[in-house]
Amino acid sequence: MFNVNRQMLTRGALAAAVAIPATLFAGFALAQVEGQPTPGGLGLPNMVTPVGLGTQQFYNMVLMPIISFIALFVLGLLVYVSYRFNEQKNPIPSKLTHNTPLEIVWTLIPVLILLFISVPSLRLLAEQVEVPEASVTLKVTGNQWYWSYKYPEDQGGGFGFDQMMKPESELQPGDLRLLSVDNEALVPVNEVIAVHITSNDVIHAFGVPAFGVRMDAIPGRLNQTWFKIEKEGVYYGQCFFICGKDHAYMPIVIRAVSREKYNEWLAQAKQKFASADSRVRVAAQSH
């Protein structure tokens, strides 16, 4: 009877070690404000892309249960060893130095754990780096300390603009300090967006947490990533590399809208930014 109860307790402890972290951190993620940092938030943010959701599930359902179980198991071993093998219970210490089966076990188990983790992680990595056919392509260039966006002409664009952080004096109700910008980049929802990323000066990193996306912006090199936003909204990111004194002041803002609103914005933005570019070129030629 005692052995049966002990087995039931052991199985219950294992189930709790897996279920509690998964439930807890999934709950923390659901408590996040979508698309932006949450004061006091814990865990990964709410994801709105297939890659982001895959990353969140991998973290909550695979990594956290394994990490929590290992931590609890090691803690239990430490408590057991401290109690079972203290000086009072073992005045004459054992002289055992080797145990071949035990050494095989503690070598084999970590290898099996890593192999178990590698299968979903490699599948997720392949999904991140293999860019599907895109309906919209953005070229994003990092500068000290702002971002430049270009929309290709063959997709209804043919214009570009700079995205700079709004100073506190220009913030409007609903704007976020250190995150809101003067020109938001718009993309259509539920469509694959390919992003070509480079830099004009030093190494930057383009990252939007809610997309599960982060890619280095390197001078002289064109890197590529993608995302497919499944929900309309405004999503904030930042430069993820320390790129100089104003590194903390080059946020990223991407607004996902319906295809109809995106087409309307393209027509307006083409007039606005194309005319602005022409004025800059005329001014440069006059000098």
Helix content: 40-55%
Shape call: elongated
How many structural domains does the protein architecture include?
A: 2
What is the CATH class of the largest domain? Answer: Mainly Beta
Weakly predicted, low-confidence segments: 1-6, 278-287
Short description:
By secondary structure, the protein is of the alpha+beta class. The chain is built from 4 helices and 10 strands.
Outline the structure in words.
With 287 residues, the chain is of the alpha+beta class. It folds into 2 domains: 128 residues, Helix Hairpins (Orthogonal Bundle); 151 residues, Immunoglobulin-like. The chain is 43% helix and 21% strand. The chain is built from 4 helices and 10 strands. Strands 3-2-1-5-8 form a 5-stranded mixed sheet. α1 runs antiparallel to α2 and α2 packs antiparallel against α3. The protein starts with a helix and ends with a helix. The N terminus and C terminus are likely disordered.
